[in-house]
Amino acid sequence: MPIRRPEPIAVRRNRRPKPKPETDALGFGRFFTDHMFMMDYEDSRGWHDPRIVPYGPIELDPAAKVLHYGQMTFEGMKAYRSPSGGIRLFRPDMNLKRLSRSNVRLGIPPIDEELVSEAIRRLVLLDRDWLPAAPGTSLYIRPFILAVEPLLGVSPSREYRLIMIMTPVGSYYEKGGDPVSIRIETEYVRAVRGGLGGAKTAGNYAASLKAQEEAASRGFAQVLWLDGVHRKYIEEVGSMNVFFRIGEKVVTPALSGSILDGVTRDSVLRLLNHWGIGTEERRIAIDEVAAACRNGTMAEAFGTGTAAVVSPIGELDWDGERLLVGNPGEAGPLTRRLYDELTGIQTGRAPDPFGWTVALDGSEEPAKPGRD
Amino acid sequence: MPIRRPEPIAVRRNRRPKPKPETDALGFGRFFTDHMFMMDYEDSRGWHDPRIVPYGPIELDPAAKVLHYGQMTFEGMKAYRSPSGGIRLFRPDMNLKRLSRSNVRLGIPPIDEELVSEAIRRLVLLDRDWLPAAPGTSLYIRPFILAVEPLLGVSPSREYRLIMIMTPVGSYYEKGGDPVSIRIETEYVRAVRGGLGGAKTAGNYAASLKAQEEAASRGFAQVLWLDGVHRKYIEEVGSMNVFFRIGEKVVTPALSGSILDGVTRDSVLRLLNHWGIGTEERRIAIDEVAAACRNGTMAEAFGTGTAAVVSPIGELDWDGERLLVGNPGEAGPLTRRLYDELTGIQTGRAPDPFGWTVALDGSEEPAKPGRD
Ligand SMILES: Cc1ncc(COP(=O)(O)O)c(C=O)c1O
Ligand SMILES: Cc1ncc(COP(=O)(O)O)c(C=O)c1O
């Protein structure tokens, strides 16, 4: 890829902005803002043509590699509205670094993280009116990279497209902050060491759909995955990492390569350490979890992720046995404290001792002629 | 899905047919014929609007689930030209049944196999001039089903599109029938029991790209995968199942759920049994393979798949050790016999004792107004 100065981002404005949905109707990932960002890659030219264009269908050759061999990576982060009306991002550098790591695993060429960072800023500012104002709401940002070369051989693509879309979101889980019931999955496996589990890529989620569906049909909110080798060690929950407060320690599975290196996970660990609460990142056997639930030392359990922030787990179903966590029906004190602290930092309601948030200001530049 | 009589397949002809490529330039999956088949699914309507339209770009919402969560399945089969100029398919029912099984694993609604079968017939006949005539060439048929609902939640889509494209193919491997060198992969894992390995879906191939690329950069044609649990048992090779002739027995890994149930694999097993040659489907440890190579009892090794039919393996690289198979530089007698017999049956040059081939005749009906 030739070294080149980053091109300026061209902007073609949407002349027919959509009506904004009611806050109550938001849900997750259902509505999309008026614009999206795109940029193309070819082996001979590198990444080029960064542009913001009206949100709308994309054209792909039916032989585009991503449609057959799943060569793609993605990210998910949020923009939050602060009490003063400003807009903040939460640790976007972590998401861009993870995107770069995922790209390495999937054989996708490196991106210019600064350019993508600038694209995020420009896109969010352009569609800032889409950021809902109600508490708990936010604007979810989804950058993704697709292998678009029209060639059916199983080999890395020589052409890619990076796209970024945004969706205003309410609360990810229908029940909001109530503790959820989670099913421990004993049949299906999501990922295994040596596989794709550590990368944010489509195949991991494809692998989870069936288990998710079966769990949902039995009334469970999510699936808790066990490792694919021993079928014994805790991995993660749906789109969340998982934490347990057992006695006075907070434990979470170590990053083994088969789970996602969550930005929220990292933030929670840092907050806990900052608060002087002992944490352990290690292997956690399902038997240990079950024993702690049975003997009453499982004080709290929660999932962490961009979508749900910190989400209390009330019970686990293990092959029909109900394993209860803490006080039935209510989120534990640490779960609540973490939720409040994190959302406080994210929205600028609380101080940000770690310098995690990035304020987006600067009025949007006037639209330039687009080249789409 | 309401029960309904299958709709007739609408046809909109391509008024600007492309020039056909030279046979030498064919390769695999590089050129596409003038038409493609499409059909849509919504929960409320079931599959509808089966149609043949000119080959060209498809439109997808950038939030289409397949682009984020990889919910898709696909198949690959071939049409062959017989000496008399007729066209034959090889066991297409097996591919459609496997597509249906893959759909179950991916949470995709069932297809009407008869309708898709009819679509294959119509599409191949319409583009029959694309079927190259030279020996070893064929027309590869790629049906695939994409989750197209524009919704970012990780759950099965409520909208799908089935597409079928076709590509004239030369020989899959550049070196043709010469034995290839294969690298035994000891770091990456393609699939694990409980995962997606038994289904034909994008995620499995995404997981293979990195290993494939590293093997290719070291001069190996393909990767041989070991199981994800013990990292010890043979799984499959790239887009092929794998067989070893050790002494007088032919062994191949049993279908454990993590490898694809190959149509060619099944055909080879049936042919060998028909010929009175002993076969075993079982676990095969890499140590057993290595020992047989070292002590000279590894008489032949080959991969089987639609793309390459039967492809001789000349040597295996196991963490730097070169494990030699049979006589260096030449395909073994059984490998050759299987290749000749299978391609003979497929093209109609040899008798078809199993009733595996389906002759496509009937001249193509006149084009009806399309509804795309
Ligand atoms: C599989 C998986 N695990 C964990 C997470 C949590 O990661 P993060 O906190 O960065 O959102 C996510 C969501 O992004 C995920 O998809
Ligand atoms: C992973 C994998 N294994 C094996 C095969 C061989 O299957 P078949 O003989 O049906 O082509 C294929 C190709 O389809 C494949 O993709």
Automatic annotation (TrEMBL), chains A, B:
GO terms for biological process: isoleucine biosynthetic process; L-leucine biosynthetic process; L-valine biosynthetic process. Its EC number is 2.6.1.42. CDD domains: BCAT_beta_family. Keywords: Amino-acid biosynthesis, Aminotransferase, Branched-chain amino acid biosynthesis, Pyridoxal phosphate, Transferase. It comes from the Bacteria. Pathway: Amino-acid biosynthesis; L-leucine biosynthesis; L-leucine from 3-methyl-2-oxobutanoate: step 4/4; Amino-acid biosynthesis; L-isoleucine biosynthesis; L-isoleucine from 2-oxobutanoate: step 4/4; Amino-acid biosynthesis; L-valine biosynthesis; L-valine from pyruvate: step 4/4. The keyword Transcription does not apply. Its cofactor is pyridoxal 5'-phosphate. Residues 1-25, 353-372 are annotated as: Disordered. This is Branched-chain-amino-acid aminotransferase. It comes from Cohnella zeiphila. The lineage of its organism: Bacteria, Bacillati, Bacillota, Bacilli, Bacillales.
